[in-house]
Amino acid sequence: MVVQSKTCPCNPITEQTFIPPLLDLAQPPDEARRAALVRACEDLGFFKVINHGVPLHVIQSLESHAKAFFSHPQSHKSQASPTPPDPFGYGHKSIGLNGDVGWLEYLLLNANSSPDDYRKFSPIFPADAARHFRGVVNEYIGAVKKMACEILEMLAEGLKVEERDAFSKLLMDEQNDSVFRLNHYPPSSDGGEELIGFGEHTDPQIISVLRSNDTCGLQIFLNDHHRWISIPPDHNSFFINVGDSLQVMTNGRFKSVRHRVVANGAKSRVSMIYFGGPPLSEKIAPLPSLIKGDDDSLYKEFTWFEYKKTAYKSRLADNRLGLFEKIAAS
Ligand code: GA4
């Protein structure tokens, strides 16, 4: 892997950033491009997508709705807090149910929502506005899901998996368990101080598609170099994370990327992330063509329901997949 370095536009003196592998969706996916994409998932579990085909007006509309939502009084937003065990709704500083905190507020939404799911936003939106907001979110999810499936199909082809839709069919399944997240990292009052916006973690799902405004903060952990590295922001592009489930389906060949967000104080950051997840009943296991025999799987058998249940009981930084790894025979 070639790590090119350049200075970060937000913090030119202290930060080193690197240019992530690039997927240009306007280019026809030939053998070499598919191989480069597979390599990015093996080396990093992370890459950037340009010429993605997601209409600009859809992105802009969602960004302005997100900003409008977060600009409401705290007391109104807090009325849309989740009712556990359901994780969906508005959250402020606290992440998950096990004591993790970050410098952010967010909206966590079911990617396959019903109009009823948006009723909790009535202190913020009157009925018509909630319907409109749901429409904007759904249009955005539809567009990024299409892109995610196109990428997953390129990856299946690159891995020479016979079934081109081996990964994408899980997102396309009616029962898919995908989630959507809008994050707002406010500027910190103490300019210059670096706060943890969203602590280090890997995403449990198959694939995550992230878009943010032009604000620094996203960092990924480079295993080979044992260090965090900043990703220069690009509001015209998307960033893709390999999730834990895709790592398992490729028998550890792809790496789910450890990442975090630091809030650098100066500017507010708004990000929108689609987490493509399989149906709850889906068995998450290496694709047969990626292992020699069943015994060669690096992982114990589990369903997405079982993995998700464990994930939601864990702390953000935990190595969740570790619990499902087979102990190597000595
Ligand atoms: C990380 C990826 C997604 O943002 C998320 C997160 C979820 C949450 O915020 O409630 C989790 C986290 C994420 C992994 C471990 C558990 C669950 C917080 C947490 C401590 C929505 C997801 O699916 O898993």
Provide an overview of this structure.
With 330 residues, this protein is α+β, with helices and mostly antiparallel strands. It has a single domain, classed as Jelly Rolls (Sandwich). 26% of the residues lie in helices and 25% in strands. It contains 7 helices and 16 strands. The strands form 4 sheets. Strands 3-4-12-9-14-7-6-5 form an 8-stranded mixed beta sheet. It has a 4-stranded antiparallel beta sheet with strand order 8-13-10-11, with no helix packed on it. Strands 1-2 form a two-stranded antiparallel sheet. α2 crosses α4 (127-158). The radius of gyration is 19 Å and the shape is globular. The two termini are 31 Å apart. Residues 87, 95-96, 98, 100, 108, 179, 181, 201, 203-204, 275, 311-312, 314-316 line the site of gibberellin A4.
Beta content: 25-35%
Round the mean pLDDT to the nearest integer and report it. 92
| Helix count, DSSP H or I runs of 4 or more residues | 7
CATH superfamily: B-lactam Antibiotic, Isopenicillin N Synthase, Chain
